[in-house]
Structure formats: structure tokens, C-alpha cells
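Reviewers of the previous submission asked for a worked example of the structure-prediction workflow described in the proposal, so we include one complete record here. The input consisted solely of the amino acid sequence. No template or homolog information was supplied to the procedure at any stage.
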Amino acid sequence: MVFNWAWVLTALYGLLSLAAIYQLGRIIAYRHKWKSFHFGFLLAACVWTILRLIYFTVIYPGSVPTNQCTDVIVFGIPLVVQCGTFSLLIVFYAYWVHKRKWDTKYKKPFWAFAIVTNSIYTLLFCVFFGLSCSKGTEHHHSMLLLQIEAILSGSIFSTLTILLAIYGFNLSKLSRAGVTRVKISGSSSRNVTFHIVTITCIIGLIFLTRAISDFLTIDRRFRAMITNPLTPFLFCRYVFWEILPTAMVLVYFRDIPKPSVRTTPSNASQQGPSAALLNSTDTIPFPKPLLASTGPNSPGLKREACQSKQACIICGFHVM
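From that input alone, the workflow returned the following C-alpha cells.
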């Protein structure tokens, strides 16, 4: 039974990693800017799924002899990437809510918050890694440190969940009032609000349960239960906490415009949900200066130049 679960997870992570690699390849082939929300989300999904694929293909079945430290690294790094992806989503929501004053007032504080949050979580992983690789650590001290790690990890995900709820609510309210320029498939503001609320609720529920689980792992019996490969909880945890949010990222960021495509309000509805979700309705959402193939001596550079900061957005290709 465990063997079958491992192969199912291997197949799912394999499909997701191929989709992420394909999307990143299109960004590189079309010479889009790498310093963007779109590229950041897809890169995180790519690293996340490839490491999980290696884990369930090689380490979990035990087909290749590995040591404890290697197992912990391959297993734990995707958890760090997951925290980074979630905090990036908070920054992304905050950008849309504070778009008018983003560069002047909100950009540095939110990026500082994301860096501090991920640094703390990375430090927690390093502590866990050290405990796993250390053979001389007393069991009592190891359990105490693991319990502290669980409390801090649950606190981090709880904070991120609260921020996601706050900014998801604010973004939906601004969208309903017609203040934001977010557009989904040419829909009305009511449908845009529905999509924002749906995405926020699903992702918020995923990470809220993750935070609750971290708090519950303070109890040794619960920790043993959720890490037992003979229980279906382990399989459900990977599907709900990792595969579902990764698939959502790939689906909503699937539209990558070719260099010749010019997205306008009239054709935004044909660009798909991700392009519409992150699209600006300005006249030139993805101008030529964002393409590496356009040099400073290009005759059409001035004509295609970005008229404003808001005109440099399509599918999340806003310089972060």
C-alpha cells in the first residue's frame, strides 16, 4: 500500500515538474524578464517539485542507499521553498492593494518582512537538520528543540495565513469597487471578486491546516501518527499541502505571451485566467523594453516605451 502511494505521488510530482520546466523554458525562450512575480512563482514550483520527485523516486523507496543527512536535505528544502512561495504570495497581494504607493512606501517593508520570515524558517530547518545528523544529542534535548521548532513554524504559517486573509479581503473589496485594474477573462467585477475570494480561501485553508498541524506536533503521539507511512494521512498531507497549491500556481500562471503578442483589454479574455488575473488594462501591458531582444537603438523603442509603472504588467511580469 505504501509502495502504491509513493508511485502515485511520484507520478503527480513528475507531471508538475515537467509543467514547471516547460513554463520556465517558454519564459527564457521568449526572453521575458526573470525578475518578476511570474518567474519567481514558477521557479519555486520547479525546485519544489523536482526535489519531491527525487525524494519519492530514490530516497523514499530506499532503492539507493543514502545517509540520514541527505534524506533530511532532500526532504526539508521543499518545505523552505513552500514558506518562500507563500510569503511571495503575500507580497504579490500587497503589491496589488498598495500598487499606487508600492515603490515609494510599501515595497521595502514587505520585502524585508518576507526576507526575515524566510530567514527564520530556514534557521528552523537548519536546527532540524543538525538534530537529525547529530548522533550525540540527548533525546530529551532533541524533543524539546523539535517542539520549539514546531511552535515557531506554526506561528510563522499562522501569521502568513492572517496576512493572506487581510490582503485577500482588501483586494476583493477594491476589485468590487472597481479601484484595481485586475481583470479576469473580461468578466464583471463581481466575477473577479469571486475568483479572488476563492483563491484566497483555498490557499488560506491549506496553510491554516499546516499551521494547526505544526502546533499539534508538539505532542509526540500526533507527530508519530502524521509521519507514519502506514496511515493515509501522510498521502493526503502531500496532496493537500503541496500538490494542490503547486498545481494552482501552474494553472494561474500558465499564460506566457509571445514577444509578438500585445495584450489589450479587447484580447485579455483570450489570454486565459492567469493573464487576466494579473493583467493591467493599460494600453501596453507588456511593452518591448521588457524583452531582451529589444536594444537601445531599436527604432520602435520610444514608440513602445512604457508609459507608466502599471503598463509593465502581464501575467505577473512586473519587476519586483
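The chain has a mean pLDDT of 74. We consider this example representative of the routine output the project will generate in years two and three.
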